[in-house]
Amino acid sequence: MTPEHGTPGQKNFDTEPRFIADRMHGTLTRYLRFMGYDTTSANGLAEGNAKEDTLLLELGLQEKRILLTRDAELARRGRDRAVLVRSEDVIEQVQQLIELGLIKRRVMMSRCSLCNTPVREAFECEIAGADYAPKDWRGLSFHWCEQCKKLYWNGSHGRMLEDRIGGEKEG
Ligand SMILES: [Zn+2]
Fold first, then answer.
1. Domains in the chain with CATH codes
2. DSSP 13
3. Which DSSP category does 20 fall into?
4. How far is the CA of 112 from the centre of ligand 1 (A)?
């Protein structure tokens, strides 16, 4: 309903896979956003809907999203538009999606991990106004979520994530 085209100068995400995750996958949702993948979550829907499974399938179809679920019955209903997530460990979940050829091992910092909105380059006043920002800006690039008014930067968090999902380097 509200396709995100990104702001000028940003990468075009139209050819990338998009995901919708069930309530079991809040952490995976945040990881996928950090990896630059447009991912919505059942956690963003009103609770107590007895037909939520059907709603997730419909949203997946409408918004061309692949459903990520731990529910075998739901995955079966979603057929080739759904992935039955095997592990409870988020790194293994990411690994499964990589092995399926759906995503690439990368960290993009192009989306807000809280709300999925594409972030834009931050203005100096926004960096200066965030008391959680590092005081030394050298070598860092800062991004801003208009929706959450949240600042992101490519510091230790990005590197930690790269290390965690960068399993190929081991051994
Ligand atoms: Zn946000």
1. 18-99 (3.40.50), 120-169 (no CATH)
2. -
3. E
4. 4
- The predicted-structure confidence for 83-103, as pLDDT tens digits, reads as follows 999 999 999 999 999 999 999
Task: Please check whether residue 143 is in contact with residue 121, taking contact to mean a CB–CB distance below 8 angstroms.
Answer: yes
Name the pTM for this structure: 0.83
- Ligand 1 centroid to Cα of residue 109, in Å, is 12
Percent of the chain that is helix, strand, coil (3-state, to 5): 40, 15, 45
Contacts of 14 (CB under 8 A, 6+ apart): none
State the amino acid at position 28 in one-letter form: L
Q: Is the dihedral of CA 70, 74, 76, 82 positive or negative?
A: negative
Residue carrying the six token digits 């008014």: 149
